[in-house]
Structure to design on (227 residues):
């Protein structure tokens, strides 16, 4: 029944070693988002895809990239993880990006640890 | 820019106690307001929402009223249960914006 699926649930990587987090959806939604949530802080939007159009937030570090090969899948790539990148990464989807009535559906998140 | 401020937790209550979690916001225009809940080990789920001033969102016994005059959207429940233990996030979305802006979350612990 899971509609937004994130794998893995926990990911451990080494300082500077590239890591990829994955998200898939069964909702056929047009928009997929990646949020970063550090401990006891608000989730912060990193970027989103509207179909194939990539939209980066102005303050998202260059170290973070994303790929969306098809409607169902979206990946978050961290090229050279630093200790400060340890966080929960949340994937979300919606049918359309704008409009106050658009509901976001979230996955369970991937908790990233950087050693 | 737009922002959301909510009370720090954890909030610890006994079962059947009354719950209030405060949320205030700063935004231009007329944003929509939301409460999301995150149960242990799960993703965020929409709990309730309100899209205009004086609207009351409600779900599962929780309520929140959009108060434009005080820029607030406080979450209330008359009688909490142990199963309500979770982290609650207040959020806003501008009427022409794609971006959901969250508060930092409030952890609720309900003891039997």
């Amino acid at each position: 029944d899971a509609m937004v699926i994130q794998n893995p649930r926990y990911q451990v990587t080494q300082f500077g070693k590239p890591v990829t987090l994955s998200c898939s959806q069964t909702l056929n939604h047009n928009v997929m988002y990646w949020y970063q949530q550090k401990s006891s802080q608000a989730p912060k939007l990193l970027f989103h895809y509207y179909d194939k159009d990539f939209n980066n937030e102005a303050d998202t570090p260059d170290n973070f990239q994303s790929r969306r090969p098809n409607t169902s899948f979206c990946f978050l790539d961290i090229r050279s993880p630093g200790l400060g990148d340890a966080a929960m990464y949340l994937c979300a989807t919606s049918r359309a990006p704008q409009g106050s009535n658009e509901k976001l559906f979230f996955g369970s998140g991937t908790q990233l640890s950087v050693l | 820019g737009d922002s959301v401020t909510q009370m720090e937790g954890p909030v610890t209550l006994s079962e059947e106690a009354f719950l209030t979690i405060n949320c205030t916001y700063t935004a231009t225009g007329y944003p929509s307001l939301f409460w999301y809940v995150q149960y242990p080990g799960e993703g965020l789920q929409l709990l309730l929402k309100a899209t205009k001033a004086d609207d009351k969102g409600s779900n599962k016994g929780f309520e929140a009223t959009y108060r434009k005059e005080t820029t607030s959207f406080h979450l209330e429940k008359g009688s909490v249960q142990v199963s309500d233990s979770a982290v609650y996030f207040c959020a806003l979305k501008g009427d022409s914006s794609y971006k959901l802006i969250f508060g930092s979350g409030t952890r609720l612990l309900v003891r039997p």
In short: The interface with chain B takes residues 4, 6, 31, 40-45, 48, 50, 55, 90, 92, 97-104, 106-109 of chain A (CB under 8 Å).
